[in-house]
Design a protein that fits this description.
It contains five helices and 14 strands. The protein is of the alpha/beta class and 233 residues long. It has a single domain, classed as Alpha-Beta Complex (Spore Coat Polysaccharide Biosynthesis Protein SpsA, Chain A). The strands form four sheets. It has an eight-stranded mixed β-sheet, with helices on both faces. A two-stranded antiparallel ribbon has the order 3-4. A two-stranded antiparallel ribbon has the order 8-14. Helix 4 crosses helix 5.
C-alpha cells in the first residue's frame, strides 16, 4: 500500500446521519451488448441496481438515494418505483456523466453528497469509510481495468485524475464542506459545452479551485465493473 494513502481503521460511516448518494446510471452501456439496461442485469438472484440500493441502505441511516437514468428510463423507474428517487437525464445520448452528476446534485439540499458510477458492483467494506472530509476511493487491488481513470496523490491528498495512470480511481467521490460549496459554484455556472465533461474532470476542477480530497483505501473492498455479459455470471 502507498505510504501516503489513508487506511481505514474503524467504522465511521454511521456518524453521518444525512447523506445524499447519486447513482449515475443514465448511459447507454454499449459495450455490454444486452437488450436489458445495465441497471437491470441479473447478478445471481438480484439485478445490479437492487444490489447497489440494498448495500447503501445497509450502510447509512435513511440515505437519500438518487438514481439518474436515461437509456431505458421508464423500464428502470417502473421496476424500482418507491425504492430510490429518480432523475431523468433527457440528453443522456449527447452528454456525459457530468450532466447526470449536475442533475443529481441540484436535486438535493443535503450537503453531504456522494456519487457512484452506476456500472459498479461493490461490497459494504467499499464504503465503510471516514466521512469527516471530502474523499475519493483508490482501487486497492487493481480490480478495475488499466484503461480506467487513474489518480495521483501528494501525501494523502488527491493531486490529479487522468487516464494512463498506474493507480486507478474506484469511481466514487464524496463532497462535504468546502468541496461541496465549490461543486455548487461550478454547477451554478454550468453551460451547454460543459455537459460533455466526465465526472473525474469535475473533480479535477474542484481541486483547481482550491478543493482537497483525501484518498481513502478500504482494505477489504471488493468492486466489479459490469462491462460485459460474463461479468454478471
Amino acid at each position: 500500500m502507498d505510504r501516503h494513502t489513508v487506511s481505514i481503521k474503524k467504522n465511521l460511516v454511521k456518524d453521518k446521519q444525512q447523506i445524499a448518494v447519486a447513482i449515475l446510471a443514465a448511459g447507454l452501456g454499449k459495450k455490454i451488448k444486452s437488450y436489458e439496461p445495465r441497471s437491470l442485469l441479473k447478478i445471481q438472484d438480484k439485478c445490479l441496481l437492487e444490489r447497489q440500493i440494498n448495500t447503501l441502505n445497509s450502510l447509512f441511516k435513511n440515505p437519500e438515494i438518487i438514481t439518474v437514468v436515461g437509456c431505458h428510463a421508464n423500464k428502470i423507474i417502473r421496476r424500482f418505483k418507491g425504492r430510490t428517487r429518480f432523475i431523468e437525464n433527457q440528453i443522456y445520448d449527447e452528454s456525459n456523466s457530468s450532466e447526470s452528476l449536475r442533475l443529481a446534485f441540484n436535486n438535493t439540499d443535503i450537503e453531504n453528497f456522494m456519487f457512484i458510477h452506476g456500472d459498479i458492483l461493490f461490497n459494504k467494506e467499499f464504503l465503510n469509510l471516514d466521512y469527516g472530509k471530502s474523499f475519493v476511493i483508490k482501487d486497492v487491488n487493481s480490480q478495475l481495468k488499466e484503461t480506467e481513470v487513474g489518480l495521483t496523490t501528494i501525501g494523502d491528498k488527491l493531486s490529479i485524475m487522468s487516464y494512463g495512470l498506474s493507480s486507478r480511481w474506484a469511481q466514487v467521490a464524496y463532497f462535504t464542506g468546502k468541496e461541496y460549496n465549490i461543486l455548487k459554484s461550478i454547477f451554478n455556472k454550468f453551460e451547454s459545452k460543459d455537459k460533455k465533461q466526465l465526472s473525474f474532470e469535475i473533480i479535477n476542477q474542484v481541486i483547481s479551485l482550491g478543493g482537497s480530497f483525501v484518498c481513502q483505501e478500504p482494505k477489504k473492498m471488493d468492486i466489479l465493473e459490469i462491462d460485459r455479459i460474463k461479468d454478471v455470471k
